[in-house]
Design goal:
This is Rhomboid-like protein 19. It is found in: Membrane. Pfam families: DUF1751 (PF08551). Helices cover 65% and strands 3% of the residues. It has 13 helices and 4 strands. Strands 1-2 form a two-stranded antiparallel sheet. Helix 6 crosses helix 10 and helix 8 packs antiparallel against helix 9. The longest helix is centred in the C-terminal third of the chain and has 40 residues. It starts with 9 loop residues before the first helix and ends with a helix. 30% of the residues are buried.
Length: 317
């Protein structure tokens, strides 16, 4: 078995993130940004369209397509701007690691599952409270996927720090969710975002933890301890969270405990590739390496352009 490469240092990760430029956004991310802008403009010019494209639980049957379309419709201007900025910059980190097909697949699955969970929750709350607000409030937005992106960053480059803030990337998803919950107590509008953020975070973790295929190993998911559900919480809460996480683990995945998870990734006594922390470390290193290569290419292209302009200016003189 080949010896794993050394992990990228924390200081290198900080330099990497601080040097991300505004250029070089991927073509797929630009296309998705145009979709978000177009959907918002449609709502501005045709307000009645929200009945057909947003998630309104009472109208989801027979308008079942809104389980898909709702995730790409932002109802507010600031929602569009935040979603586009996050899509372009975070997509620039994730797409080189996953590839365009897996990146688009992640967005589609997280969006659809998030809408489905919101629909089921709204119906359940209506039958419990008999309040029709749960049935007729239009819910939509790309923020579920943005929350999922933060979970992906936790998986790929968890120990790198945000420049100037000294916060590790692995805490972004938890901080975002905590802020959204806190804002919902003071801002009524924030309560409409909360279900999408919660389910977007959890569904993306479910997908990355158990379902995402890894072509290099032919296995699914990320069983490493560094990506367990309890790692989204502070250390002192994990003894309480672990039993709760194991319940959902059994309900959603049909596995009784961590030993079952290990059996799925072992053949006899030899662990299969990707079933241990080494594979998780390699995945994170690949993410950092892909980002470094993209930044190096951008710097090279910039220096070449500057050289051409200098040569052209000298010739004109």
């Amino acid at each position: 078995m080949s010896t794993p490469s050394l992990p990228v240092s924390q200081s290198q990760g900080t330099r990497t993130l601080s040097s991300v430029s505004v250029s070089g956004f991927t073509r797929l991310c630009k296309g998705l940004a145009l979709v978000l802008v177009a959907a918002h403009l449609v709502l501005n010019f045709f307000p009645s369209a929200i009945t057909y494209v947003a998630l309104i639980p009472a109208r989801t049957i027979p308008f079942a397509w809104n389980l898909i379309t709702a995730g790409y419709v932002e109802q507010t201007l600031h929602g569009v701007l935040i979603s586009i900025v996050c899509l372009l910059f975070i997509g620039k980190l994730l797409e080189p690691v996953w590839g365009p097909r897996e990146f688009l697949k992640f967005i589609f699955i997280v969006n659809t599952l998030t809408s489905l969970c919101i629909f089921i929750t709204a119906i359940a709350l209506y039958y419990i409270t008999r309040q029709e607000i749960y049935l007729y409030t239009p819910l939509s937005g790309f923020h579920g996927v943005i929350s999922g992106f933060l979970v992906s960053i936790k998986q790929i480059i968890p120990d790198q720090e945000i420049p100037f803030l000294k916060i590790k990337m692995k805490w972004l998803a938890s901080i975002s969710l905590l802020c959204c919950i806190a804002l919902s107590f003071w801002i009524i509008e924030a309560t409409t975002y909360l279900p999408t953020v919660i389910f977007g975070t959890y569904m993306s973790w479910i997908y990355l933890r158990y379902w995402q295929k890894k072509p290099e190993t032919k296995l699914k998911g990320d069983p490493s301890e560094d990506f367990a559900f309890s790692t989204f919480f502070p250390e002192f809460l994990r003894p309480v969270i672990d039993p709760i996480g194991s319940i959902f683990h059994r309900l959603l995945c049909g596995r009784s405990d961590a030993s079952d998870d290990a059996e799925d990734y072992n053949l006899g006594s030899e662990p299969l590739p990707g079933s241990d922390p080494i594979e998780a470390s390699r995945r994170r290193e690949r993410g950092a390496r892909a980002l470094e290569e993209r930044l190096a290419n951008e710097r090279l292209a910039t220096s070449q352009s500057a050289g051409e302009l200098h040569t052209s200016g000298a010739g004109n003189v």
